[in-house]
Amino acid sequence: MPLRAWAARDAATTVPLYLAYRLHSLRATGRSDAGVISFLARNGDHTFLGTSFARRAMKSYLRAAGPEGLLHEVSLIEPAIRTLIRRSRSGPVGAVGAVGAGSDSVPVRDAALAEFVCRGAPAHDEVRSRLAVSPPRSDEPDLYALHANLCESLEERAELLSGWYSALNDRRIRLRPTGRRGQVIPFAFEPEAHGEGRSDAGGPLVSVIVAAFNAASSIEPALRSLLDQTHGQIEVIVVDDASSDDTAGIVERVASTDERVTLLRLPENRGVYFARNLGLQQSKGEFITFQDSDDVSEPGRIQAQLLRLTGASRAMACVSWWIRLDRQGATRPTKLGAYAHRNFSSLLMHRRVLDEIGFFDCVRASADSEYVARIERYYGVGTVAEVQKPLAIGLSRPGSLTRSDNFWIDLRGMAPDRSRYVRSYRAWHANARPMDLYVAFPPDGRRFPAPPSLTAGTDGRPLE
Hints:
Blueprint: H1 3-11, H2 17-28, H3 33-43, H4 52-64, H5 67-87, H6 95-98, H7 106-118, H8 124-131, H9 142-149, H10 154-169, E1 175-177, E2 187-189, E3 206-212, H11 219-227, E4 234-240, H12 247-257, E5 261-265, H13 272-282, E6 287-290, E7 296-297, H14 301-310, E8 317-325, E9 341-350, H15 351-357, H16 367-379, E10 384-395, E11 409-410, E12 413-414, H17 416-431, H18 452-455
């Protein structure tokens, strides 16, 4: 919407007329979005910050400003960002929102924000000196993560992240360094951290589907984290999506020592959701969940989600939270102020869901969010329960779906093709009758349009 039209529309409602006029004047004289944000932050005009204009301006600012420029501006835009966080659906869930509003904590908030957006830039000395005034403590858990990112050794990071996980989960959780960096998470959860022995007898069978493609460096830690679950009644179905490395050989070696692991192999690459669907066809569990091949789960993840799902009368499925680490073991928030956030790959559901709404849409990206949205469209809002505690670690790496050229998601928003796909499935959900929401596998045609980049190689050709 043009700024003039936006100002005219909102002046009579949520935004005072003088503010709309000043915004229009600033833009008309060539001031950038960054200038608008900084001007309003300095002058305390925050009433407009819940609008789509403000969100677009902040995204533009984050795209345009380099690390040094953003560090210099941090004291100006920090109040604006704090207000945006408060207006977001997730609320002030990170360190910027968590560390209180008193004057003594201003340096800590500045340091937190600088650390969020300047990771990898030569700003650590300044951040470290500011954070020194506020050591990690359980009532502000994200300070553990901030301090961990400034540590050089994996041992120190593991200790601080253990404190962060323990504070957020209200129980002792221990991480240990594996000594490995690069294409694998450099930490592992200690099996005894949950405090309750594994129960192989009793309880419902849970099928865990793991789609894997060229995951030789990460698949064994991922499987070990599942086999160490405190809920031992599981079957782990790994679907190798035509890997060219030793992924299948590693899975076979793990399966030879634990009969709960099964390997399926695709003759050609079809994408993660096609692979998951093949695993779903072979699953036997009363409940079904998923894990990516480069993630590790906390030992109590499945048990915690089962308890949440079975304890909620209307729930048909459940997700939990996670954190993302880069290849050096530093935490990576996906939006300002949020280290822990919703993990769609943790979806755990009743088998009845598969029977009634079918399989994942066979595309290259975003089908997990479509599936969760489809569950709530079919069964009603609130039928996907949530464990709002981090129960897994994901790896943020070049080449992953969320960082690829066509499918990225970051502080800017999401890639155009992914955004078009989201709009398309939302329109289908809104207009389809519940009985028409079933998705078959193998695919028998598309239920709604999707960009070619997402459907390439995922069609319904029969497997050889």
